[in-house]
């Protein structure tokens, strides 16, 4: 979702599982017209030529791009001039332009348009990119120059953003073996190469099981399902050659509503089993052996650097700093979460008993009976709420919020002037409302399709920078809503609407950047989710409700009574959502702290959950065999806790807006939000940035209140807090 340093881009590409050895350079005839290498032309500072790309161009493109990238770094390393910020750090910022461009295209293929051919390319290319990465990270001459610039900067500090760029570049190389002896570097490179292939295999196995386990329903098996779901399921079945049936795909966007509404308990169990057994079916696509090997290799690699375990190495430059700090936060919330689950299950079991359903609540029952409890306890019907959550209106609501807080204006790009990679993708021009200056483009790819990874995410095709001329932002949001039948509205749940806002928060983070250097568009993993989590809060503001939450047929604004019910039920089912998330986050950490030599992954998962007191009635949000955040790359490895770390910041920051005179649209607070929390990206230490925004460090109390695990903060408490702020 973000552009990292030029060096860390290589790590990102490895995580996305592709690469190519640059030992040979093809003849010019094979690359002259290669779209993946060509400079981007056209309006908006140039845009990717998504309409001209060919899969056959991938190999020759990466051969050239990686050869030139290596040559760029060699030139920097062998510069005869004394190492300086300009001839070393800035030169690295300029390195590998063709690799950057080629990576955008293939990253897009891998995530949005995957096919057997794409997956085969991933398997072939991943180890070779890893070799190139190692050649750069282990270049001692290059690292000596980086180290010299870093040490000089400690004696004679640079501008704050340059100082941070030097620091993050130095730490990145040091953390990845630049100071190791030759024999240890050799083994380190071998490990990285092997891991890159394992990450690709893990991700492809999960994608196989998502595509291969579709549940088809007949007309007499639709009881309880909303009309919108039935219509969309019929279209998916027809697309897959099952005319007259209804398809439940093996993705969360399809599984979740089916488990919530279907009256067919055995079918719920089947759909639930398909989803939660991805990567764990004991066949050639089973991921358990791969996970064990990944854990062993990660431990061996960090031991080469002198660390005791992977978590200790990974968290040293995160906000948490140590595994202990991350565990302390999670363990502080866990008891309250599982206690709430017991209350929720008791409520659900009572409803089941009242209905004469002779059952004991099982994981495939949780969503179904929780919905019935919601109706009984709060008189709140999720399907009724969906009638007011139309996707196009939600998009307009996001534009409105971006205009009020960031001063951005969004206008649709028409006439095909900006190429797209699929007909579903739409593009908007983003400008500053006051000056009219171009900020960039925003691409939206909303619908699920074969070959597209599940879930929702944001990415950037180009990030903001000014050091070598101003670069406009090309930002994208990708979702997996079920595409409706022609003429039908896309209706989503409240949770999905929050996710839509969340991912748009990542896009705004990219669009609002004011950094000089591309590498500083990155971020600290347990901080970068904060900004997007915070943006979710604007969904339930009065301005959004009154302008955009309208019935998709009548156009009537969602009734105040229904909003009151939503607010009253805001902490409903928090036991479920917090526990399923925390179980995954705790498992991530504990897997990386355990001895990988002795681990049996399935057994470890069961025993660890039992030791934690995991309720029998639900499972981890991401079971280990399909935990792509952690095992299809390294972005969230021992970092999945970061969502909760960020949520502490989110809850605390939200209370700052709630206490402000203008609430969530307070102009002074909005200005501080942009100035300190969005625009600096990674040019400022995140802890310092938050203190500048809030005037102090965040407190966990707000998080506990948000989730209903503590007493709400009363009016007196708010007044006391205002007095404390004035005194401060």
TrEMBL record:
UniProt keyword annotations, A-Z: Hydrolase, Metal-binding, Metalloprotease, Protease, Signal, Zinc
GO MF term (any one): carboxypeptidase activity
Gene3D superfamilies: Collagenase (Catalytic Domain), Endopeptidase. Chain P, domain 1, Neurolysin, domain 3
Signal peptide: 1-22
InterPro entries linked: M3A_DCP, MetalloPept_cat_dom_sf, Neurolysin/TOP_dom2, Neurolysin/TOP_N, Pept_M3A_M3B, Pept_M3A_M3B_dom
Record-linked CDD domains: M3A_DCP
Details of cofactor binding: Binds 1 zinc ion.
One GO CC term, this protein: cytosol
Residues annotated as domain Peptidase M3A/M3B catalytic: 258-707
Region (Disordered): 705-728
GO biological process entries: proteolysis
Cofactors, names only: Zn(2+)
Membership in a protein family: Belongs to the peptidase M3 family.
Protein name, UniProt field: Peptidase M3
Organism: Marinicella pacifica
